[in-house]
Amino acid sequence: MSYRIPLHKRFVDAESGWCVRLNRICRGRPTRGFFAVVSRLGDGMFWYALMAALVVLEGMAGLVASAHLAATGAIALGLYKLLKRWTRRPRPFAADLGIRAWVAPLDEFSFPSGHTLHAVAFSVVAVAHVPWVAWLVLPFTACVAVSRVVLGLHYPSDVLAATIIGSALAGLSLWVVSPWLALA
Asked: Which positions, given as ranges, span the membrane (predicted)?
């Protein structure tokens, strides 16, 4: 008699396996330190510094970009908190003893990754306003996304969903403000 494993169960098992393997990357102190710093900067410090730098370097255009980033960030914060309360997905380290949380989480639930959602939304909006920042924000955003999984705080699907949500939010935000930006 053959037993068929449901697709959802196979997906969950595969994703947990990836989490365990990626989490092991942080066993080395330099790697763990790097991703911990990236994660901490992704808490907001990097983005606040970027907004301040844009105002200094780009003048009024930087101020407009920073205001747009702040508004997008506020909406992203409300959206991700709502989704976390609604989904209540346990974090990988809470669901699997083979996964260690290498840094303390900011909240209880996993889905979606708020760090990734914000990083993607901020990157898209920032690059739309000031294209030369792409060399800085895009690699940083990729490191933030990877850090969430290797630090044991998120599943890859949390990060993927956050990437999609952050991209959609940024796209909608740019669409909404584009008539006013054309006037500036």
From this structure: 34-57, 63-83, 119-147, 159-183
Domain of residue 91 covers 7-183
Q: Is 1 among the domain residues?
A: no
Q: How far is CA 13 from the centre of its chain?
A: 23
Q: Assign residue 47 the CATH number of its domain.
A: 1.10.606.20
Nearest to 83 by CA among 176, 173, 166: 166
pTM of the model: 0.89
Digit-coded pLDDT (tens) for 25-58: 878 888 889 999 999 999 999 999 999 999 999 9
Residue-wise pLDDT for 95-106, tens only, equals 888 888 888 888
Q: CA 14 to CA 117: how far, in whole Å?
A: 23
